[in-house]
């Protein structure tokens, strides 16, 4: 009877065990640590199953495992039974599943999560988020580039989840977002205490080409290079150094961007307040060249007051040269105040005005008619340029080169570097022009030769050459040419060969050209004029007298 009862109990228990469902593989189950041996924890997960888990799976990165016999833990069931008849379990996978559930909720609510940086990878770092591993890009570590991330390793700190994909197992986090948020809160608090015009102490945090960033106690302000001093500052490092404490004035606060503009020069007296009293128009002052540009040079009259000497006001004579060839940086110069615009904070200065106008000096020392000597500086198609005192030039026009030659021919006799003498014809100070004449120093042989000769005059010339087109003649040393058509009023007599060299011939002057220095002569015109005069005195061919009778009477009258 007892045996029968025992068998029934066994069958009931067996049936009960079949009816109990074993947990699904790939799920998280609770277990109890029943032993720790050989670096592993033996865990009873119930259902008459035990499994082993390496102790390192119970430790956070960089920490020792915290596990003891009797502890209840959650583990991930990979398989119900392995070759040794044990359950294949994992604490790390259980933590990961738990972490992913927690992180997804935080991501949906845009909440911060806690984690620790524990490793470096290409492009950033790995972060343990309490069981799930996330990627922290290098650009998201801090608000500024981090050169040494060592102090951040293993430290528990908050992160913001930027992106996560459970299917792919990807999580991207940011530490920078947390810092920026807290920094923005801090900035807002500090900015709330500041107001425009306030004078505060600050520490120079960084220096750039355009200015310096000053820490005002949790918030940075920009001190622009133009607001450091009233004078010109080429680079902020000239007057500031990193770590220096200084007093600055809050110039402007942008409530939207939280940008703060600072100034130092505003705490000093503005030198422009006294510029018009100190630098009267027309006065001459000493200054120092601070900057040279293509259009002129800036001259510092005093700290904070600069004026521009435009290139046109730099030299009386050097018109098309770069200002750097006239003055140099740091050179001390005398300048004259030409104009002041206090509203625009501009002073126009003149350098050449401190020296006498060289054309005025020349006009005083070289009156019209005086003789100068100079070197030929340039030869152009319209004349010579001769170098004079004080770097000025005078011009000899083609027409003033020679009495006897055409200008185009006479200019061929000169070369650059030749030293010539010339007479001063005109000095125009306003137009900065000096007219010279070389021929004025010689005698005008043409004028002397034709003295008293005018158009219509009858003169006697000597034949000097016979040519096919006419004859060459000479009058008081001046050569002229009579064309074949002007040799006689009779066509049959218009033959050059009927003349001989040395013959004296009476001719009529038809033109006096002082410019070309030539006389227009004609035998034909003389004959026509004589005939006209004879007809007027001794009769007309219309009255029946022949031309021969008239001319005969004229000749007879001449003999009487």
UniProtKB/TrEMBL annotation:
One of its GO terms (cellular component) is ribosome. Keywords: Repeat, Ribonucleoprotein, Ribosomal protein, RNA-binding. Residues 26-92, 110-176, 197-265, 282-352, 369-439, 456-524 form the S1 motif domain. Pfam families: S1 (PF00575). PROSITE patterns: S1. The keyword Glycosyltransferase does not apply. Binds mRNA; thus facilitating recognition of the initiation point. It is needed to translate mRNA with a short Shine-Dalgarno (SD) purine-rich sequence. PANTHER family: 30S RIBOSOMAL PROTEIN S1, SMALL RIBOSOMAL SUBUNIT PROTEIN BS1C. Belongs to the bacterial ribosomal protein bS1 family. This is 30S ribosomal protein S1. It comes from Plastorhodobacter daqingensis.
């Amino acid at each position: 009877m007892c045996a029968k009862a025992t068998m029934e109990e066994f069958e009931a228990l067996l049936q009960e065990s079949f009816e109990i469902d074993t947990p699904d593989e790939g799920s998280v189950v609770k277990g109890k640590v029943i032993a720790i041996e050989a670096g592993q924890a033996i865990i009873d997960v119930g259902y008459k199953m035990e499994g082993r888990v390496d102790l390192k799976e119970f430790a956070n990165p960089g920490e020792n495992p915290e596990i003891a016999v009797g502890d209840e833990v959650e583990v991930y069931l990979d398989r119900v039974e392995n070759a040794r008849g044990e359950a294949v379990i994992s604490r790390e996978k259980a933590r990961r599943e738990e972490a992913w559930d927690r992180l997804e909720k935080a991501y949906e609510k845009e909440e911060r999560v806690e984690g620790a940086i524990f490793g470096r990878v290409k492009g950033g770092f790995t972060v343990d988020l309490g069981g799930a591993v996330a990627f922290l890009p290098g650009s998201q570590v801090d608000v500024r580039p981090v050169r040494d991330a060592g102090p951040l390793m293993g430290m528990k700190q908050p992160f913001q989840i930027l992106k996560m994909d459970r299917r792919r197992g990807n999580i991207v986090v940011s530490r920078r977002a947390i810092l920026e948020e807290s920094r923005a809160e801090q900035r807002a608090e500090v900015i709330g205490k500041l107001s425009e015009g306030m004078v505060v102490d600050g520490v120079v945090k960084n220096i750039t080409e355009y200015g310096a960033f000053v820490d005002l106690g949790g918030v940075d302000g920009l001190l622009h290079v133009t607001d450091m001093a009233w004078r010109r500052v080429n680079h902020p490092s000239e007057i500031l150094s990193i770590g220096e404490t200084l007093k600055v004035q809050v110039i402007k606060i942008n409530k939207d961007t939280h940008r703060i503009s600072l100034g130092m020069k505003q705490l000093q007296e503005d030198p422009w307040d006294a510029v018009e009293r100190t630098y009267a128009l027309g006065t001459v002052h000493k200054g120092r060249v601070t900057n040279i540009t293509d259009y002129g040079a800036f001259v510092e009259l005093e700290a904070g007051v600069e004026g521009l000497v435009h290139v046109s006001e730099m030299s009386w004579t050097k018109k098309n040269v770069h200002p750097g060839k006239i003055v140099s940086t740091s050179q001390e110069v005398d300048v004259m105040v030409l104009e002041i615009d206090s509203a625009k904070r501009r002073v126009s200065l003149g350098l050449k005005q401190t020296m006498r106008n060289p054309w005025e000096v020349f006009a005083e020392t070289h009156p019209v008619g005086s003789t100068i000597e100079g070197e030929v500086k340039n030869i152009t198609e319209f004349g010579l340029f001769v170098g004079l005192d004080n770097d000025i030039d005078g011009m000899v026009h083609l027409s003033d080169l020679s009495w006897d030659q055409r200008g185009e021919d006479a200019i061929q006799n000169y070369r650059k570097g030749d030293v010539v003498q010339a007479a001063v014809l005109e000095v125009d100070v306003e137009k900065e022009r000096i007219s010279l004449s070389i021929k004025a120093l010689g005698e005008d042989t043409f004028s002397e030769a034709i003295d008293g000769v005018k158009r219509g005059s009858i003169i006697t010339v000597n034949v000097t050459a016979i040519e096919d087109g006419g004859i060459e003649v000479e009058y008081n040393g001046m050569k002229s040419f009579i064309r074949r058509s002007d040799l006689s009023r009779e066509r049959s007599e218009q033959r050059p060969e009927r003349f001989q060299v040395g013959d004296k011939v009476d001719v009529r002057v038809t033109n006096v050209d002082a410019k070309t220095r030539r006389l227009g002569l004609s035998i034909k015109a003389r004959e026509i004029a004589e005939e006209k005069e004879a007809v007027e005195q001794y009769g007309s061919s219309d009255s029946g007298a022949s031309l021969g009778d008239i001319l005969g009477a004229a000749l007879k009258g001449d003999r009487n």
